[in-house]
Design brief:
Blueprint lengths: L2 E4 L5 H14 L3 E5 L11 E5 L6 H9 L5 E3 L3 H7 L5 E3 L5 E2 L4 H16 L12 H22 L1
């Protein structure tokens, strides 16, 4: 089992939580980005630097992640590729993407993109809060515990 991290826009507190989880649970964790990452040396943490360009990191994660693994991304189209493969997907605010909600989330994302493309100012998400950090940590812990139990 691995944890895949879409690291191009990963908030620092989420990165730190993922690093601690990798060490504590001894789970290989791969940070994928189109820039060089400064990560601590660990036998459980690695990084992949992909070429620059839109969705290159996403394509790498989508191709490499397997059923029973976990991914952290705020990219809804990437989540929509991973969920049907059986990958557990969490966003940085601790929302779990699932078969039940991914189609709706993708539809809302696409609608908001259409509005932005037509010039409507939609505003983005609020700043990353302590509550977001706590929610992410709780969801990550719950899902990793569940995945590790199913592995035996």
């Amino acid at each position: 089992m691995k944890i895949w991290v879409d690291a191009d826009a990963c908030p620092g507190p989420v990165r730190d939580i993922l690093l601690r989880a990798a060490e504590r649970l001894r789970v290989p964790t791969v940070f994928v980005a189109n820039k060089r990452l400064n990560l601590p040396r660990s036998e459980f943490v690695s990084s992949v630097q992909v070429a620059g360009g839109p969705d290159v990191a996403d394509a790498h994660i989508a191709a490499a992640a397997q059923a029973g693994e976990l991914a952290m991304t705020q990219d809804i189209p990437l989540a929509a590729l991973l969920v049907p493969k059986g990958v557990v997907v969490i966003d940085p605010r601790g929302e779990l993407f699932s078969e039940e909600n991914i189609a709706e989330r993708l539809s809302v994302r696409n609608f908001m993109q259409e509005l932005r493309d037509s010039g409507v100012m939609t505003g983005g998400p609020g700043g990353f809060s302590a509550q977001d950090r706590q929610q992410f940590a709780a969801t990550l812990d719950r899902e990793l515990t569940r995945l590790l139990k199913t592995r035996g």
